Amino acid sequence: MTRTPAITRPPVRPKARSGSRFAPDDVWAAVRRDYLGGLSAVECCIRHGVRMGTLRHRAARHGWRRVDLPWVPPARLDAQDEGVELEERSGGDLDRIEMRELSFVAHRRMMRAALRGDAAEALRWRRVRLAMDQEEEEVQRFVCREDYLLARREAPDPGPPAGAAGSDGSDCSDDSDPVFRPAATVSPRP
Fold it and tell me: pTM above the 0.85 mark?
C-alpha cells in the first residue's frame, strides 16, 4: 500500500461579510498615515475604500490619535460648563450641593448638547435632569412629612372639642344618632 502525499493549501483569510474583501495591509498603512495626519475618518474611508466601522475599530484597538485633536483628560470639564463653578463653590463637598443645582447643570448641558446637534447626549442629560427633579421632590415630601410628625409630637393634646360626641360623658353607643339606631325589626311573612 502506497501513501499519497497530503495536499497542502495556502492559508486562506476569512471572508468578509456581505461578499466584500479585506483591504490589504498596505492600504491600512496608508489609512493610518492619512488618519493620523489629520484627515477625517469619512475622508479616509472614501479615499481608501474601507468601511467606517472597521476604521473606527482599528483606530480604537491600535490607539490611533489624530494630530489635530488635542488630548483631553476624561474628567475635565469645559471652562463654560456650569458644573465648574458649582464644583469650585462646594470645594468638592457633595453634601453642600443641592439637587436643584445639579438639575440646573444637567439642564444646561442638555441645551448645549442640543445646540451642538448631539441628540443622544441631549437625551442622556434630560434623563439626568428628570431624575434629579424626581429626587428633589422625594426629598421635599420626606422633609414635609418629618416636619408634620415632629409638630404633632411637640403640640399639646387639646382633647376633644366642646360639644363633640363623648364630651358629655356618654359612650356614643346610644340610639340618639340615626346611624346607630337599631333597624326596625321585620316580621317574617306568614
Answer: no
